[in-house]
Amino acid sequence: MIQTAKFLLPMGLLLAAVGGAAPLRAQTLVEVFESARAFDAGYQSARLQYDANLARAEQARAGVLPPAGLVVSPSRTRFENTTPQIERSFSSYPATLSAAQPLYRPANRATYAQSFKQIDQAAAQLEAAEQDLILRTSQAYFDVLAAQDTLTFVRAQKAAVAEQLASARRNFEVGTSTITDTREAQARYDLVLAQEITAENDLRVRKIALDQLVGKAQTEPRGLALPLTLPAVVPLDVEAWVMQSENRHPSIRQAVSNVEIAELEIEKAEAGHKPTLDAVASYNITRNPSGTATTAVGNRFNSANIGLQLNLPLFAGFATQNRIRETLSLRDKSRSDLEGARRSVAQNTRTAFFGVLSGQGQVAALEAAERSSQSALDANRLGYQVGVRINIDVLNSQSQLFQTKRDLAQARYNVLLGNLRLRQANGTLVSGDLLQINSLLVP
Fold it and tell me: What is the pTM of this model?
């Protein structure tokens, strides 16, 4: 009895700390996600890469805008002549302002068109990074809740086994049961103690992972409010989910942009055979305040020039032809990659869809199993009291009930995660989807 009381004494405090009502400082999933988005190194890297990609795409505009430049090259000259004897130093201050407007440069136009596709790619990459962060945050959030549930159930099972152990000892002392019942209960109690140590360590590790993700210490997620009605899958048609992915999924959008960029790359390669035409203009001012080599009188020369500059390529050592063949092959490769992306997304979407339906069915089955396990435990306890059941029957019923409770809690989390995975699989996952899960948490 002394040993039993030792373990039962802190049970109320331990269960209150791990399970039950949510702590005052508990955070919702949306709050945890916002913290992760501001701290996670992977997402921050993706966002900075997005900014860099935008800047890189804007660089292509330079090919269709007029470059202009100002060149100033002052100099000092000393002039000596023996016949006749002339020695003179003079300064020169020339300055030239020039500009050119591309009129026909098909390669530059194609590069400029590619920049818009690169912006689309950058947006798709950032969206994929955000979807990945949503799923990683939700996974870490529910991992902590599942670990808390496991520890709660293990400790509740420990309390029940301790009570059964005490009962077996009392019955043995009065001679109504054998030492076998006591030893069976003691063995089960020792096993539950080992499970409790494992559960405590697992909860500790899960919390560390969540804290590292959000950049805050001792993050406390809110638990699910019970009884719980899990959200249904809408629409309940797998092909509708697959069709949504065609224009929404980031990987498909990136693959489409790659095809369009590859086609524009072909235009750039073919432009190697085409002429280029630029409008050029320049204005030159040269001041010689001390004269020049031919005169000692200061002077100033102004000249302006405007015209067209045509460049016609004649022969490039077959580089252009080979470049065209290269770009054609790369275009075909990008088309193949696009088809592969579509097939992969469709398969992942179907897998995720049926996974959610399976999870919902599993939750319903486990809810029924929980009720049946509770009834079986009550019946075995009553049978043990009247002598038609033995101690091991009660212990097995207890283990089955708490295992079912733990599996049910995990199945609920899996369904909620499955809904998010389904939306990630077809590319429609957004941070607003977390609001629906928030509504299921303890207020």
Answer: 0.83
